[in-house]
Amino acid sequence: MSFQTGFLNLTWGSVLMILIGCTLLYLGIKHKFEPLLLVPIGFGVLLVNLPLGGLMETIVEGKVVESYIIGGEPAGLISRVFYYGLMWEIIPCFIFLGLGALTDFGPLIANPKTLILGAAAQFGVYFVFFAALLLGFDIKEACSIGIIGGADGPTTIYLTSLMAPHLIGVTAVAAYTYMACVPLIQPPVIKLCTTKKERAIYMKPQLRPVSKTEKILFPIVGTIIIILLVPKSAPLIGMFMFGNLIRESGVTERLADTAANAFMNILTILVGISVGCFMSADNFLNIKSLEVFGLGVIAFATATAGGVLVAKFMNLFLKEKINPMIGAAGVSAVPMSARVVQRMGQKANPRNFLLMHAMGPNVAGVIGTAAAAGLFLGMIH
Amino acid sequence: MAQENVEFPITGKITSVNVKKGDAVNEGDVLCFIESMKMENPILAPVNGKVVKIDISAGQVVEVGQLVATIEY
Fold first, then answer.
1. How close does chain A come to B45, measured CA to CA in Å?
2. Going edge to edge, which strands form the sheet with A73-74?
3. Distance between CA atoms of A103 and A52, rounded to whole angstroms?
4. What per-residue confidence (pLDDT) applies to A246?
5. Alpha helix positions (H), A261-354
6. Do B10 and A335 touch (CB under 8 A)?
7. A335 touching B, CB under 8 A?
8. Helix (H/G/I), strand (E/B), else coil: B49
9. Which pLDDT score is estimated for A2?
10. Which residues of chain A carry a pLDDT beneath 50?
11. Of A124, A204, A207, B32, which residue has the fewest beta carbons closer than 10 angstroms?
12. Which residue on chain B is closest to A359 by alpha carbon?
């Protein structure tokens, strides 16, 4: 046994991955692209690609392997977190608890029609699911790639860990990167699908006031209905609604505060660093990763278009027209996509203030994506 | 001369007021910024005209429907 430095074990792949890690750090720190995720992920990528560190060691048939091998027994610091946290599907579901505690369903309850828009924007998920199948991905991989279009990081990680764990690094990074890019991806798609006149449609700012009772009943009734309809969505929807109930109940403020802040931050650190550490050169540098990134952006774009077009369709029947742009907020990315709609709405008509109107489809989109994941699981897993 | 009252479309806290009484404004100019849902949102002038009444200040918490400014055009 001799003392080894890492230099001789550097490969072109690991050098390239170290550069990718540093690029993610740069985007997160300098340009504030989803910094809470890209900084931990970027640092994880950097760490794991420095040779011989052993953070992601797994034991396969009695031998210690440097990078994470699916099916192996975890033996490194982060491979254990990755295995017990992500592969056991614990962390993404508890992130949903935190999201629930952060979510105000008020705008959705005030205007339940927007639930349809949250469902419509899942069109991108199914569109890309079929596109991925045509490109030769197997059916479980196609589910994991399609779900990127839901614009929901934890759901993507959850579904991928169950369906196609070897893709978890790339689908997670694609989902989070594109969420950060929502302000770039959505506006051209929205413009393509609407006329200037439609974008200027005025919506009254005031939503109906929502009572406390309604806000408490929503997560309870919602849980019962959704889980009866799509049983496999129970881990995500259950945690999401539970988080929301402790927020709205008015008697569990301490729990809601922890779920939305401290607990959520701990999970974000763990998920970020372990997804980053999964991205070693041999797990990430292949043509499939590029295809996943390509399909991911198509998923986002078609999801946006789906939401907008269904909103236009709804307008055929509605007496009080809705601004079709709020359909674009049906991709979950809360609150980035609602904000995009708000900004574009104000630009088209300075009287318009669509933020609260867009929050309805936006939170409905979170439910929609979790339900779409449950549907995939129920049918295929 | 017609007048239009601009009202707050959302509840929140005013972070800055960008015009004062007597200012001429164009459609789309920022009247003030309001922080709501952890975001800074601009409130825009709906028409070209002159601010004839504005009675808000930074730091103030406002409700939906409260007056931002009256614009004469």
1. 7
2. A63-65, A58-60, A73-74
3. 42
4. 97
5. 262-278, 281-284, 287-315, 336-348
6. no
7. yes
8. strand
9. 60
10. none
11. A204
12. B37
ipTM: 0.87
CATH architecture of B3-72: Beta Barrel (2.40)
pLDDT (0 to 100) of residue A1: 53
Beta bridge partners of B35: B13, B40
Tokens 């867009």 belong to A358
Give the contacts of A111 (CB within 8 A, at least 6 positions apart): A207, A208, A357, A360
CA A191 to mean position of chain CA atoms: 24
What gap in Å lies between CA A153 and CA A333, rounded to an integer? 9
**CB spacing of A353 vs B9 below 8 angstroms:** yes
Is there a contact between A128 and A156 (Cβ–Cβ < 8 Å)?
A: no
Paired tokens of B42: 């601009």
Which structure tokens are listed for A117?
């828009």
User: Which residues on chain A are in Cβ contact (under 8 Å) with B46?
Assistant: 350-351
Radius of gyration, CA atoms only, chain B: 11
Every domain of chain A and the residues it spans: 7-380
The rounded distance, in Å, linking the Cα atoms of A371 and A73 is: 31
Q: State the DSSP string of A115-140.
A: HHHHHHTTHHHHHHHHHHHHTT--HH
User: How many Cα atoms within 13 Å fall on the side-chain side of residue B51?
Assistant: 25
pTM comes to 0.89
Determine the Cα–Cα distance for residues A311 and A121; give it in Å rounded to an integer: 10
Q: Which H helix or E strand runs over B36?
A: strand B30-36
**C-alpha distances in angstroms, A189 versus A56, A183, A238, A340, B31?**
40, 11, 33, 12, 30
Whole-angstrom distance, CA of residue A225 vs CA of residue A374: 14
Helices (H) and strands (E) in chain B, counts: 0, 8
